[in-house]
Amino acid sequence: MAKSQKVFSLIEKKRKISKEIENLQEKCNHSKKSIKSIKEHEASSTFVVRCVCGYCEKIIGIPTTQELNKYLNGR
Ligand SMILES: [Zn+2]
Fold it and tell me: For the whole model, what pTM was predicted?
């Protein structure tokens, strides 16, 4: 019982945190673009290169070939 209680409270916490991040991303005007290698989705082990906002980490697009080359060469 205690274990499932713990899980429920963690899920609730996670949901609240996600909501908070969402709110921050909504208020952000994404004026700083950066290219990052990120997980395709939370459960995935596949990494993809995306344009994310440098302030709020929101995915704002897929890099162009030019941007991608710049990112890959810059490492
Ligand atoms: Zn942003």
Answer: 0.72
